[in-house]
Amino acid sequence: MTRAEFIARLRSGLVGLPTATATDIVADYETHFADGLAAGRTEAEVAAALGDPGRLARELKAEAGIQRWRQEKNPSAAAAAVFAVLGLGAVDILILLPILMGVVGTLFGFFIAAIALFISGGGVMVAGPFAGFPGGPFAAILMGLGLMAGAVFIGALLTIVTIWLVNGIVWFARLHYRLLKPALEPQSDAQSDATSTGGSL
């Protein structure tokens, strides 16, 4: 594979990443080729050492998704990280996806229940004192506050479980798939070549 073919396939695979990030990555791999050629390698040898550019792009996108999740910790970042990891093929999607959909569906149901409980608590607290609530207005206010507090607790607990779930998927993928391995190997090869060249001089 030539340098131009490798870079074109890498650039195509990085579609979806921020433009600046993709440009930096492509520039890094242009440097790999320049260093390899300066060390006496052919373009085909450098491309072979770097690995498949399509797979490399998927790894880089997965790594970017994981980094975004670690920084932002929001539903959008979680979805991006999970789908990026699934896209690697590190986790068997046919086995994991049905389980994951069931877990996500259950968590979503509990989130909806927590929201409904919170709204109900607010309704009891506001309307209870005027609707002849058993125990009087003060009991209605306390009951409403109790329901709202319970809803907040459930929501916080579900958030923690969701974070654990995403972190677990990322951990499992890292355990079974060494991210960015092709990107790291050429640097070691280049250092070995430089050492052997320096030793032979």
From TrEMBL:
Keyword hit for Membrane: yes
Residue ranges of the TM segments: 77-101, 107-128, 140-173
Organism encoding this protein: Brevundimonas mediterranea
Keyword annotations of the record: Membrane, Transmembrane, Transmembrane helix
Keyword hit for Transmembrane: yes
Protein name: DUF1700 domain-containing protein
